[in-house]
Write a structure and sequence with these properties.
This protein has 313 residues and is of the alpha/beta class. Helix content is 36%, strand content 22%. Helix 1 crosses helix 8 and helix 6 crosses helix 7.
Length: 313
């Protein structure tokens, strides 16, 4: 990828942050909640003061209409939410284990498997400051082609974040390689780091060595490894930053990784240091883990108050 520059080398306005891929209903033990990593990312970007946009597709069904209503209630625009007349809105069954970690069962052949390249999406790609995409929405050839066309159509300055987000068997060596080549930043959890680095033939050593191997091999700017309650590891060309995480009472960890990614993007495009990014992203993710679901409602200055209170130093 080429060099990434902001307009005027400084972001003085809300960034346009695109969550590209799946939007769906998470069927949690506590009830139904709006989900999908791209939608969670866009919502978290909004909380941080940026303009989060969901680029996805729902069915022409009651669940799809409910997605639109839920997005509007959360302050997310539905203007780039496509409608499919053949396939239903996506659903995912989520079970929460004793540690608060989610386990997913994802329905096949749903609307976001048919993402379509349209003039409206071409215009959106041209305006994007950040595009966050993952593996799951690329499980079908149709959506995979659209995701990659969206990335190719964006300006060179647009920051591309690959949130690897492996689910079930919906990925391959080829998909990982192509996605990494389209990216500036890759974000994985610690388990995914080992699975991906093994599959791609990166030296089987420590987390940092594996992360740096991926960074060098694919010309990335940053590798982010989330470790759940154990914090995170950020690896750039010149620096490694570890964070030990925060000790909080976990309600469920659904959406915590997406909050981490949104906070990372928010600070990265504003030129913040890796130390500042690491602290802020871990704090934000830990707060989300104390809440039920991936899109906890909160507004204005209450967010900072919640972060200060819910995540002790």
């Amino acid at each position: 990828m080429g060099e990434y520059y902001l307009d005027g080398r400084s972001m003085t306005r809300p960034a346009i942050m695109i969550g590209l891929g799946e939007v769906l209903w998470d069927l949690l033990p506590s009830g139904k909640a709006l989900g999908g990593a791209p939608a969670n990312f866009a919502y978290m970007a909004n909380l941080l003061g940026d303009e989060g946009v969901v680029a996805s597709r729902v069915g022409n069904d009651e669940a799809g209409r409910e997605v639109r209503a839920a997005m509007q209630k959360l302050g997310l625009s539905t203007s780039h939410l496509q409608e499919d007349t053949q396939y239903p809105t996506g659903m995912v069954s989520v079970q929460i284990d004793a540690a608060g970690q989610p386990e997913f069962k994802i329905k096949d052949s749903v609307s976001w498997d048919c993402l379509e390249w349209t003039p409206a999406w071409a215009d959106l790609a041209a305006r994007a400051d950040v595009i966050c995409f993952g593996s799951l929405a690329q499980r079908s050839p149709i959506s995979r082609a659209t995701v990659q066309r969206f990335l190719d159509a964006a300006p060179e300055r647009t920051l591309r974040i690959y949130d690897v987000n492996l689910r079930e068997s919906f990925y391959s060596r080829e998909l990982l390689q192509e996605s990494l080549k389209h990216s500036h930043i890759a974000k994985l959890n610690d388990e995914e780091l080992f699975r991906v680095s093994d599959l791609l033939g990166v030296a089987p050593r420590s987390e940092e060595v594996r992360a740096r191997g991926l960074l060098v091999e694919y010309g990335l700017r940053l590798i982010c490894v989330t470790r759940g309650a154990r914090g995170s590891l950020l690896v750039s060309k010149d620096k490694t930053v570890e964070h030990r995480g925060f000790n909080v009472k976990v309600a469920d960890a659904v959406g915590a990784g997406d909050a981490f990614t949104a906070c990372l993007a928010h600070h990265y495009i504003r030129g913040e240091s890796l130390d500042r990014i690491s602290e802020s992203a871990n704090r934000f993710a830990a707060w989300v883990a104390t809440q039920i679901g991936a899109t906890p409602p909160i507004h204005g200055t209450r967010l900072q108050d919640a972060l200060d209170q819910a995540v002790p130093d």
